Amino acid sequence: MANRPIIAIVGPTGVGKTKLGIALAKAMNGEVISVDSLQTYRHGGIMTAKPTIQEMDGVKHHLIDYLQPDEEPSAFVDLAISRIQQIQDGGRIPLLVGGSISLTEPLLSHPFIQRSDLSVIFLDSDMSLLKPRLDKRVDQMVEEGLIEEVRELYELEQSMLSCPDFSRGVWKAIGYPELRPAVVECNEGSNQTYVKNGIAEMKKHTSSYAQDQINRIRCRLIPAVYVWDINFMVLFVKDEMTFEKRVIQPSISAYLGWLSEDTKGQAAIADRSRTWRSETGLCSQTV
After folding, report:
1. How far apart are CA 257 and CA 161, in angstroms?
2. 166-194 confidence digits (pLDDT tens)
3. Within 13 Å and on the Cβ side, how many CA atoms surround 124?
4. CB-based contacts of 186-193 (< 8 A; 24+ apart in sequence)
5. What pLDDT, in 10s, does the model give residues 256-270?
6. What are the Cα distances from residue 263, in Å, to 2, 15, 119?
7. Going from the N-terminus, what domains does the chain have, and what CATH number goes with each?
8. Which GO terms describe its biological process (predicted)?
9. How would you classify residue 122: left for phi > 0, otherwise alpha for psi between -120 and 50, otherwise beta?
10. Do residues 255 and 7 lie in contact, with contact meaning Cβ atoms separated by under 8 Å?
């Protein structure tokens, strides 16, 4: 078996990282460490796409729901290293799952991680395929109570901040600045136009954020992984219908082989990275 292995799953928002992380954790006796700066907050679970108890499906998750609304995850890397060690000491495999590049880069470059047996799964996609999924997810958030959640965050903002500040805490999450006017106007009367406009802006900004993540992963993170000589593979996500066949099944097969030091599993991981590099190229721009 690989020596104290760690698996990281990285990709843009809405690509399926949570789903893959849970599937891998169940298949190989693992626990998930969320690497998402906004899921660290105890509030805003809908707009930050925090996994529900049902979605976790019995898999233990770490580093979610531990910050107050006005705090920042400044100690995240140290906390993550501590949790990784705890999981490994318990004979289980830590899976680092998330798309916050601001946390992923310092975590993967940490000396402890660099000394570990690390492998990274990059979930890649094109915006032409990803945008419809992101738009649908925003609509689902609205159905699940997003507007009421924004109202709760607005009440927290009023009690905790001297003036609006969308650059700090949970209030910087996409969805709050866009839909806040609808909540404010709701206190004064008609707000349907603000809701409609806010949802449209939320979809627009979510897509822009996903594109930025794709660029940063392709142009910064994957080249860094090459430099660090870390084992990795890239899986291209097309749609939800083929996710099980094209992403989950190949990942489980490859990484069960990797853990047992089976050469076929290791070769499968290497083949996936070579195929992606030849088809996509490392980067077409500087980020």
Report:
1. 51
2. 999 999 999 999 999 999 876 555 578 89
3. 24
4. 186/151
5. 999 887 655 555 565
6. 12, 29, 15
7. 5-126+214-280 (3.40.50.300), 130-206 (1.10.287)
8. tRNA modification
9. beta
10. yes
